[in-house]
């Protein structure tokens, strides 16, 4: 990452509020910002760990140190990308804690996908459905289903403080990548609208700083996605019907390393527009239907 970011406290437990601490993994990249942020929830003798992160020994050691003498009552995963869930199994082996949270991802075989980004070894002891909770002596985490970035994505609401752990669904530093066929733009937009209707006080994403004005950010994200959709329709009006031709015009100023991922989000928009009857495709060429 660039020098504009502040020093990164890798391997250090930072207290964000009485019931929440953050531990940053050393896996910075254009997709993870400064790295994956794992959260330790609870101040008593039993805590939860949210998004234990990548399989990095340094990070595992830092999580165990942050937990200290407390018991881990639940290892909670928002989804199963490799920067979020692989550390769950070794952390469970070290501590005896159950893995609780999102469902294992049933990979679709419809079309190309980025299989390497998924943790196919993830095995939860308990899957949480929307509205189901896991509890400790001073905390309650309630699952909020937010499919779209992935079909199995969950957020976790900390009932006692009004905080929402948003994984990759909402981040202040970047929009979330939606990669078909598992990622679904219509579901993603519905999930954003669902979060906008909630009254959470603060968001703690898996990457980037806390979001202090959640509804304002989500409203902006919904507007941004609608603007992207309009951009795509304008590209089609100008006879740019191939995604690789659209992306350079739509993402000027964006790191070119991110263009392939941006192209997948464009595809997700096009699939949504196709379902709504506004566009059609022939091979890899897309056209307007009207």
UniProtKB/TrEMBL annotation:
Gene3D superfamilies: Ribonuclease Z/Hydroxyacylglutathione hydrolase-like (3.60.15.10), Winged helix-like DNA-binding domain superfamily/Winged helix DNA-binding domain (1.10.10.10). Residues 35-207 form the Metallo-beta-lactamase domain. One of its GO terms (molecular function) is hydrolase activity. It comes from the Bacteria. Keywords: Hydrolase. InterPro entries: LACTB2_WH (IPR041516), Metallo-B-lactamas (IPR001279), RibonucZ/Hydroxyglut_hydro (IPR036866), Sec-metab_biosynth-thioest (IPR050662), WH-like_DNA-bd_sf (IPR036388). It holds the Pfam family WHD_BLACT. SUPFAM superfamilies: Metallo-hydrolase/oxidoreductase. This is Glyoxylase-like metal-dependent hydrolase (Beta-lactamase superfamily II). It comes from Novosphingobium marinum.
């Amino acid at each position: 990452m660039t020098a504009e970011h502040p020093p990164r406290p890798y391997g250090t437990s930072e207290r964000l509020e009485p019931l929440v601490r953050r531990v940053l993994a050393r896996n910075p990249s254009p997709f993870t910002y400064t790295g994956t942020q794992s959260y330790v929830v609870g101040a008593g003798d039993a805590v939860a760990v949210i998004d234990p992160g990548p399989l990095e020994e340094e990070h595992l050691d830092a999580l165990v140190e942050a937990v200290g003498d407390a018991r881990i009552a639940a290892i909670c995963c928002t989804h199963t990308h490799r920067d979020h869930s692989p550390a769950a199994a070794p952390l469970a082996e070290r501590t005896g804690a159950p893995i609780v949270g999102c469902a294992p991802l049933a990979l679709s075989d419809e079309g190309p996908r980025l299989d390497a980004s998924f943790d196919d070894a993830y095995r939860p002891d308990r899957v949480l459905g929307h509205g189901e909770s896991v509890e400790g002596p001073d905390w309650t985490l309630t699952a909020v289903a937010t499919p779209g970035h992935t079909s199995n994505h969950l957020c976790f609401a900390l009932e006692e403080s009004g905080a929402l752990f948003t994984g990759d669904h909402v981040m202040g530093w970047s929009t979330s990548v939606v990669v078909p066929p598992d990622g679904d733009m219509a579901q993603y937009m519905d999930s954003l609208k669902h979060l906008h209707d909630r009254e959470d006080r603060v968001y703690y994403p898996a990457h980037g700083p806390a979001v202090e004005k959640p509804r304002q950010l989500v409203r902006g994200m919904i507007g941004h996605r609608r603007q992207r959709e309009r951009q795509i329709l304008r590209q089609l009006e100008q006879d740019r019907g191939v995604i690789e031709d659209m992306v350079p015009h739509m993402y000027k100023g964006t790191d070119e390393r991110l263009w392939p991922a941006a192209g997948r989000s464009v595809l997700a928009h096009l699939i949504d527009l196709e379902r709504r009857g506004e566009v059609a495709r022939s091979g890899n060429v897309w056209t307007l239907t009207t």
